[in-house]
Amino acid sequence: MWKGEIAEYVTLEMMIFETFIGGLIGRCGSNKSWIRTESGATIKVHGGKGENKHRQIHLGGSAQQVSVP
């Protein structure tokens, strides 16, 4: 990005199985923190444990920050 250029804010939303949430978040949020630190994106997990079979994940930031390889 060039100096003075404003990055467009992008949101990526996905649904994942409840059984994968623990691996995504990690012990005491370690994986979630690592994702935020490495990518610069925000990550939010919606829905409470056991409420549904799926949980909604929101990633936010620039297109580069939220890209999934």
TrEMBL record:
It comes from the Eukaryota. This is Uncharacterized protein.
